[in-house]
Amino acid sequence: MSPQPQAAVGAPLSRVDGRLKVTGKAQYAAEFDADGAVHAVIVDASIGRGRIISLDARDAEQHPGVLRVISHRNAPKLPYRDNSGSNNMPGRRLRVFQDDKVLFHGQPVAVVIATTLEAAQHGASLVKVRYDAKKPSTDLHEAEPDKPTDYARGDAKAGLRNAPVRLDLTYRLGRNHHNPMEPHATIARWDGNKVTVWDKTQWVVGTRDEIAAVFDLPADAVRVINPFVGGGFGSGLRCWPHTIVAALAAREVKRPVKLVLSRKQMYFGTGFRPSYEYRLRLGSDRRGRLSAATHRIDSETSSYETFTEGVMAPGQMLYSMPNVSQAYRTVPLDVNTPIWMRGPGFASASFVIESAMDELAHKLGVDPIELRRRNEPSEDEAKNLPWSTRRLRECYTVGAREFGWDRRNPKPRSTRDGDWLIGLGMAAGVYDPGRYPAQAQARLHADGTAVVDAATTDMGPGTYTSQTQVAADALGLTMRAVTFRLGDSLYPQTGPHGGSSTMASVGSAVLDACNQVRRQAIKLAVEDRESPLYGVPADDVVVRGGRLHVQGNPARGETYKSLLARHDRSHLEARGNYAGPPTPERDSYAAYNATFAEVAVDATLGLVRVRRMLGVYDAGRIISPKLAESQAFGGIVGGIGTALLEHTVTDHRDGRIVNANLADYLVPVNADVPEVRAIYLDGEDNSGNALGVKGIGEVVQVGVAAAIGNAVFNATGRRIRQLPITAEALL
Amino acid sequence: MHPFSFTKAANTREALDAGRHGGRYIAGGTTLVDLMRETVERPETLVDISDLPMRDVTVTERGGVRIGALVTMSEAAAHPKVRSLYPVISQALELSASAQLRNMATIGGNIMQRTRCTYFRDVTAACNKREPGSGCAALAGFNRTHAILGTSEDCVATHPSDAAVAFAALEARVHLVGPEGERQVPFADFLLRPGSTPNREQALRRGELITAVEVPALPRPLKSGYLKVRDRQSYEFALTSAAVALHVRGGVIREAKVAAGGVGTVPWKLPAVERHLLGERPSESLWTAAAAKAAEGARPLQHNRFKVELLKRTVERQLRVVGGSK
Predict the structure, then answer these.
(1) I want to staple A595 with a disulfide (CB 3.0 to 4.6 A). Which of A107, A166, A182, A703 is the partner?
(2) Do residues A572 and A671 both lie within one domain?
(3) Is B1 on the interface with A (CB under 8 A)?
(4) Full domain range(s) for residue A630
(5) Which residue of A has its CA nearest to B306?
(6) Whole-model pTM over 0.95
(7) Which residue in chain A has the smallest CA separation from B320?
(8) At what angle do helices A463-475 and A502-526 cross, to 10 degrees?
(9) pLDDT (tens digit per residue) in B220-264
(10) Domain that holds residue B75
(11) Chain A interface includes B62 (CB < 8 A)
């Protein structure tokens, strides 16, 4: 941090943009007023794999209001320049309307552009497409995997062979979709060879670069704007085909085009958390000291791109053991490409590992927390590095105390409340947050207000608020005096708003920019004979409420306003920079949690209802406690969904997603979310960012599903190694 | 959505006139508009009947209740007579949909609502109900939520209404008015099993309009209630459900009305369960023995096998909840 007093950082403030949101004044991607915008609706492939034989757009074109129908038959060739950035996955990305191939059910095969949304929608239903359909391969458990990515230390095979206690468990995890409230949407407007795009994205810079690559434009010919995001959870981390479709359509009809995905289209038009089959073998001694583990991890990817995520990491560093081997295999299927979803990889791995730890604890008759303590590593055994901070033990202690863990009867099926069996479970969670290079620009105006800009995003965690808090303290201004702006690719560049990276990365750049501006002002004052601060050592000056003064002597000082006026300066400004974490890494940096769940399971009907949840987090410094609590609630709710409800179902006969809507894809509703509590351990982690933060958005969901599954076991004695856990498994 | 014309009927005569010429009636629109957006429904003409005088809940001379077709779900559920005489109806309604939907949707529309089968709602899938002769994608597809009772080779879709399960249990009558005048149809005859014509869902004649649902008087005291079993605590259709009404006098069950939802192609009356209860004294073992008959004739599919057992347990639970656990 800085020598500045902290007034805003650490205070439980409400969202600075809250009023805009609740009054409907916050503008989301589809709500911008692009003059004369017309509407585009995508026609989705109705087969799972094959070729388009014919595409008859005559009826659609003749429908009143329809301006154009674009498909592979008439679309211009698009350059699709290589772009390994923008979160494009290795492979050959989907190229819209460039050939007759259908790679997955729902792939865009045409777009209808019309003067009204209704005409475009109806026009889309009039496009007749005939296919040569092949049977798609969409079942993870039936298809051939790619070559594995391996990890090994020690000799896991021998370790397992020699272990007195062994477990061999296979888990199946369902596919999840992000389902943000706001649908993905794009408005594109061309002005000559330049294009402006309003797009629901978590990374305006990445989307800009991808549009530039697809249309072979210089980056500065593309501007992407996105000040508000109605939920993302990862679905906005790359530029999806529909964004390109909107830009292409706008160029072809020479008018601004608005394209909003339907809820159904979000299930194949954007990515998803892939399903997994995960076989874990664990070996330990009779006291529960782990000696070996082998992990065989299979997950979905598309036929055209290879999607991977951090699913290997928890198995390498969560527990101490000499022998580990892992094989992570992607399985190419006739589906669209997955994308990271809250707690990516870690949440999936943690369900497996933490469920298995619970099984081991039960088998050995050891308390699950005690088992974890016995295997707590003193350093990162995969990286051979010390921890920056790792306070899992404290998470266990605080969590056990606050949740009433001592009231848990370790014997399953021993606690009843009428028809309900009651169970308690816990799990550990870990997430390795991203830290990406970032820049920010701070400008202090002569009137004593400041504006800070960075091309980051606020998908809901409260970036506007938390960055304003950092800026306000570093500048010595009130929250009100500072405006933080984001969501425009013209602003100083940042990495994606994902992977819990934003506070550490963008926050550090904001801090740097604001520190520089404050120091400029202090320098101006202490070198100015007319300033009351003349001659004071710069380090002895602090700024509070827009007034510079000597530390410990508030009487001696002056305001920014008078200082800048006297010097006839309209503003002071600086570009802040965050270079990313040090390379090579000096320590192992991650956020941790212990998550606790109490569930009730109807003994005869098999229904699982969560009663209480508690998360205890080791997440470094908390900049914005009120928003951090909201993040934890959101992560826990997401985890309840993964554990009990969420499951994208594919009909393997033709690759169709059969529950592509919010009535059949179940997310938790209020009634499913009981008492939820979040505790952040007080502290900071100064490894590689000046704010001392670790990032919280992901770790809050990691471990939740396992805690619930373990509570279900404690309640019923039934171990369900499949997500979601539904009634039929418990009857 | 396909283009359509829209008219508003000022009175029943106007509505029937429009209906006779092929107009589709619309009230709350919570199902119809949804399905129009998906192009599953493609009416050429919509006739808004929301101004017609069918908004009353009245107690009949014999002590039953007559609920007007345009009474909203929330009004019906909250009506003091419905609440006190037939808690099973109020509960079924309040466990349906969401508050917003219940404020819009009407009783007439509720029993007319169409299946939630996802293949029916996806116009690119085969569905005999939507497009006769095209086949049934659900039969060998993902059919976890589908029916185990009353199915045919052509359709295995469930009827989604909760209220209709209560009406079926209580042997309600549907009041209709059509070009040829008024008539009443027993609830059991109103909703049709799919057979080889799953596109025919109700025993309605061309242009006929539901005016009310009448629940007959039943001997008092009558205990009743509705249990809905679902993955999510709220805002989901039933995996299984049970509507139960019992009249016990002198320690003996004199009247038993039982139906199940979420399991049948229509709300599934359970006469075998009812017969088993009549003349018996309430007991845990009676509930178990009676409920054992709930799934008689069930024909489960690949993904809904669990519903056979779940149905029995649902009925057993609700018999105990309503009848007591002595």
Answers:
(1) A703
(2) no
(3) yes
(4) 384-434+587-730
(5) A728
(6) yes
(7) A419
(8) 20
(9) 999 999 999 999 999 999 999 999 999 999 999 999 999 999 999
(10) 57-112+160-215
(11) no
